[in-house]
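Subject: Predicted fold for Transition state regulator Abh, 144 residues

User T.R. writes:
Posting the sequence so we have a shared reference for the thread.
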Amino acid sequence: MKSTGMTRPLDVLGRIVIPKEMRTSMDFNVGDPVEIFMDQDTNTLAFRKYTGMSCKMCGSIEQLTYFKESFLCNDCIRELKSGNAISLPKKDTREKVRRSHYTTQQMIKKLKELMLELPNSTQKEYAKILGTSQPRISQLKKLL
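User M.O. replies:
I've generated the structure tokens; pasting them so everyone works from the same file.
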């Protein structure tokens, strides 16, 4: 790991801001989940973009197998076994969801309207429509 020479202070809540240059080079966007790792021997923190359960090679989320701390899809495994491993990665088929940034009051209002419009929907469905997480929908429902 190399030092960048950049420093950032912790705020009163223990947060730091990742410098824009690093966010850009690591393809971090607003709302992206980030994994945090800690090496206790060296007191080092490391960050990486969280990809969840998707193929390490092509990004597919279907028919995954766990192999050496990574997920691989059946198609990539077949390609590797056949010796045809030199190919361009497949296009990411996961739906890109942009997180919306509204105040709590705006989100409550939108959720109320949505609940009136679609009363039988689940919190997960409301979350997908509003571009937020299911736990956030649960929090907003408690505030109603």
